[in-house]
Design a protein that fits this description.
The structure is a single chain. The chain has a domain of about 70 residues: SPOUT methyltransferase, trefoil knot domain (Alpha/beta knot, 3-Layer(aba) Sandwich). The chain is an alpha/beta fold. A four-stranded parallel sheet has the order 2-4-1-3. It is built from four helices and four strands. The mean pLDDT is about 85.
């Protein structure tokens, strides 16, 4: 995790996580650029979930075994500085006037797909 995401022991996070913060490995870093460098050195495929001119349908992306997924702010999305350093940008196809989803919904869809696609 990075950015302004709540981290344990934040009271609101603990309330909604129902104890999951104790059974899921997590780490917080202040500097996303430092995280990107580290993950690239560790051979992670960096995936940006963002609507860009280069985005591909999340169901058609070629995922590797080691992935790190970047989700942006619900209103502002991910910065170009982040998407340009990612190996691939994926998006969820949407219809209608509003072409955005709550980040928790998009996260659930993407992560569920990754579990099925990579066998993790």
């Amino acid at each position: 995790m990075t950015g302004f995401t709540a981290i344990p022991p934040h009271r609101k996070l603990i309330k909604v996580s129902l104890g999951a913060e104790n059974s899921v490995d997590w780490e917080y870093m202040d500097d996303v650029q430092e995280l990107i460098v580290r993950l690239k050195k560790e051979n992670y495929q960096l995936i940006a979930v963002e609507q860009t001119s280069k985005s591909v349908d999340y169901r058609k992306a070629d995922y590797k075994q080691k992935v790190a997924v970047f989700f942006g702010h619900e209103r502002d999305g991910l910065s170009v500085e982040i998407t340009d350093k990612c190996d691939i940008c994926v998006e969820l196809p949407m219809f209608g006037i509003k072409k955005s989803l709550n980040v928790s919904v998009a996260g659930g869809v993407i992560l569920y797909n990754l579990i099925n696609d990579t066998g993790k």
